[in-house]
Amino acid sequence: MCIVISQWVALDKYLYILPAVIALFWVLRIFFLKNLSKVQLLIAAGMVMAIITMFYREFFVLFVFPMYHLAVRQNTSPKGITKWDWLTLLPSFLFIPYTGTIYFKIYLVVQIAAITVWSIISVRKYNKRLAELYDTSSEASSDDISQVLLYMIITVVVFLVWLMLPDSAATTVWIALPFAIFLAVLQFFIGYHAYNLKDTSSIAAEFDEIEVDAVKPADPSAQDESGDDALIKGVLERELYLDPAASLVSMAELLGTNRTYLSNSIHACRNQNFSEFINTLRVNYFMELVKKDPDINVKEAAMRSGYNNLQSFYRNFSDIMEMTPKAWMSKL
């Protein structure tokens, strides 16, 4: 996300050809996707406005962050983009006449800070609800939209530092050139994650329909010596956690129960949410595979344990075991 207020600094615009070309490359790739989602379209629109900002009118920068915010809300909110979300564009229109003034700069800083906080809250709420209902290592994950948000925040920090520089420093080519290169790197990663972004709006929409009841205490008479009840034992005996597409709903259907009972069993017997429960079982299964066959390929063992990509496996293994798979295997 290239936030460059070109008329604030007397800087040669040729420095911004590289980030502009990279941004344009990803925009074109995104626009020509067969299954272009609304969230990808919004991010691409934000990138287009960033390009225009660099070479034509600086007031377009006012609409970059709102577009990214709308993308986050589309992918993480149960109701998608509401009329209240669209209102985030209104102040941007109101401040167009103040372009180039101190009021324009102040509003831009406030806008960036407010939208970043709002977007972070949206992603966190989504992830918390997701962990109750889905395996967060699946396609339901918000990893890509979170990465886009991360690069937005990095850009915020760089931009604020840029604003603090005196004009004499900001117009120095040896300062401006690294800044332009850094913008190019940010554009690449934002475009990359936007291109690979999974549309999770349909999953987020289910959050209003699927309500997990308050956790009920476990029934001691229904538990075995390990503290597990019939539902948990059913998951273990049938190894349902090995399905990469496992969800609370699908697993409950296979066990002949409903999501509320299964969720309560997981919370009461294991003191975990659904995602923690599933990934703990998968990591334990992986470790048993390796103990039986120390020469087994890590990727093969991870896939057999229910993971559909190594990135998710490594992240979950490190979170649960507090060490990498390589470090754990070295102790065998």
Unreliable stretches covering 5 or more consecutive residues: 1-12, 212-218
Specify the structural class.
Answer: mainly alpha
Helix content class: 55-70%
The backbone outline, from C-alpha atoms, is elongated
Largest sheet: none
Q: Tell me the series of helices and strands, N- to C-terminal.
A: HHHHHHHHHHHHHHHHH
Radius of gyration: 24 Å
Give the end-to-end Cα distance, rounded to a whole number of Å.
46 Å
Task: Please report which band the strand proportion falls in: under 5%, 5-15%, 15-25%, 25-35%, 35-45% or over 45%.
Answer: under 5%
| Tally of strands | 0
Q: What is the number of helical segments per DSSP (H or I, 4+ residues)? A: 17
The mean pLDDT is: 79
